[in-house]
Structures are given as structure tokens and as C-alpha cells.
Design brief:
Elements: E1 31-33, E2 43-45, H1 53-80, E3 81-83, E4 91-92, E5 101-103, H2 104-107, E6 108-110, E7 121-130, E8 133-140, E9 146-154, E10 157-163, E11 166-167
Parallel strand pairs: 2-7, 5-11
Antiparallel strand pairs: 1-2, 3-6, 4-5, 7-8, 8-9, 9-10
């Protein structure tokens, strides 16, 4: 079942996403499916959304057109970066969202042997709790595991801000 999610551009078939705001609908549990369950099964959760559905519909439709590139950025980060010294001595406290967070500027370096294996994680939920901040919830397909990725939308672009426990990712992380 998960073979379709195995590599870059795995959400590349834009025809499987709802990109027309007028076609978006809220389910009884405050979710908006932006792709069919038989296709990608990607859901935007509105339970704690920063604005009413009618106000965010155009942005959700726009987000659906960007899912492939955002997921590709997540996979590039996973392959390109690693934590120095297993994160020992590079932890930032206090950390509001979790008990342990790792500061990117102090803890990350380029991975000298980038991983070539396929990602075992698929995009499950998208949360829009704050204006201009989008949180992706990734679930593992091989074990009981998940992590969050946060993007900031500014200057008509998305910027990766956190990946799992790694925070404060700069705009130019790919150029470093």
C-alpha cells in the first residue's frame, strides 16, 4: 500500500488534490480532505485553526498545490542534515513545545553520507493553528512513530522551521 509514498515527488500528481477552494468541504470532525483517501489521504485539521473555514479555504487550496514541494523539502532535510555528536551538549532549554528540543544553529551539520533509502514516513495531517505557520504530522509506515514538521509562510514562500525535535531552522539551510 505504501509503495506510492516511497520517494521524492511522491505527492506529485496534482490531479489527486483538491485545488479549487469552492470544492473544499469540512467533515463532521472539523477536517478538510485535500486529497481522496484512495489517493494520498491528506487532511487539514481545523479544530484549532486560527480563522474560520471560509477565510482559510483559498489558502488550503493553495497549500494543496504546494504539498509535493514541501514534502520534498522534508525529505531533502532528512537526507542532508544530521545532529552533531548525537545532540549531546547542544540542547536548548527551556523548550515550549516538548521536553527536549535541539537548536539547529548549535546542533546540525551536513551529513557526509546522505541517506539514499526511501522515507518510511507519510504525511497524515496538516494543522493551521497560527497564521502563516503550517504543521505537518508525519506517520511512520513501518513502526509506531511520528514527528512534526513546521513551515512558515512569508514573502510568498514556505520556509522549513522545525523538523521533529530540531528547531530554529534558518531560511538558507540548504545553502549551508
Amino acid at each position: 500500500m505504501y509503495e506510492r509514498y516511497t520517494g521524492f515527488n511522491r505527492y506529485g500528481d496534482i490531479s489527486k488534490f483538491i485545488t479549487d477552494p469552492d470544492l473544499l468541504q469540512v467533515t463532521g470532525d472539523a477536517c478538510v480532505y485535500i486529497s481522496n483517501e484512495n489517493d494520498y489521504d491528506v487532511v487539514v485539521v481545523l479544530e484549532r485553526c486560527y480563522a474560520p473555514f471560509d477565510e482559510v479555504k483559498p489558502f488550503i487550496a493553495f497549500l494543496a498545490t504546494q504539498i509535493c514541494e514541501l514534502d520534498n523539502a522534508v525529505q531533502r532535510f532528512n537526507r542532508k542534515k544530521r545532529i552533531k555528536n548525537s545532540g549531546h551538549g547542544y540542547v536548548r532549554f527551556p523548550s515550549p513545545p516538548a521536553p527536549l528540543r535541539i537548536d539547529y544553529s548549535q546542533s546540525m551539520e551536513d551529513n557526509p553520507t546522505p541517506q539514499e533509502e526511501k522515507s518510511d514516513f507519510i504525511l497524515a495531517y496538516i494543522y493551521m493553528e497560527e497564521k502563516n505557520w503550517i504543521s505537518f504530522d508525519y506517520w511512520c509506515t513501518t513502526e509506531n512513530s511520528e514527528f512534526d514538521v513546521v513551515f512558515e509562510y512569508k514573502e510568498n514562500k514556505f520556509f522549513l522551521r522545525s523538523y521533529g525535535i530540531i528547531d530554529n531552522i534558518p531560511d538558507n539551510w540548504e545553502d549551508e
